């Protein structure tokens, strides 16, 4: 139930990390872009094809060492419906390779509209030809600040289809404290949201003690990450902010429980653009991504072991 499939994969791979696939053309090697723009006259079609080629090569290089990918929907939507198709094909390809897919959409609405989001990303859509999966991700990031009305439709799908969600709690951006650190009585807003995650997931707890309702907690706030790990024993963490945003292995350690589980750490640009940082031949971009993913895995696992 809930996070079990993800945790199973993390334990199997001995790797609590997720590769964020947030591509834009500037990240894609020039030779791929040239091939795609020579093939398609429509610039959005060419762009989407370039993203998809890039993603497939990255997945091929990572699927046997990294348990999951996290595509950020906005990076595909900015290339129109063609980009959304590339997102759909990326999800399908990653799942064919056995990876868990965590769509980063930060969806936020209520009632029938939230039911539609839940159906689109995690559920099945009714058609005249029967039910079909639209995007078919395993997990979805959501904004819980509309309250329970925005979460209940997702919980129903999570229970029916063994899916999970990650609710924004303490985000990694600099200005997060403008709202999330404000006080509600004796607690800060992010603490209240964390408590709500515990309550929302109370009847979906799986074999590892974690529910289908996870929390997004940034590596850029290590003290709060450690604090929330202690206060939210049944809430699994998705931790952005490692690498390009400044978080390091020591910063993320507080997100893990005494058994070394409880969190998955995201790196997007660090993995996708590793070839640019290395300065290697752009044709070896997938190899560079694999090397960076291994380095990241070892960095985090060593930090957890030395706590």
Automatic annotation (TrEMBL):
GO terms for molecular function: orotidine-5'-phosphate decarboxylase activity. This is Orotidine 5'-phosphate decarboxylase. One of its GO terms (biological process) is 'de novo' pyrimidine nucleobase biosynthetic process. Belongs to the OMP decarboxylase family. Type 2 subfamily. It catalyses: orotidine 5'-phosphate + H(+) = UMP + CO2. Its EC number is 4.1.1.23. Pathway: Pyrimidine metabolism; UMP biosynthesis via de novo pathway; UMP from orotate: step 2/2. The active site is at residue 106.
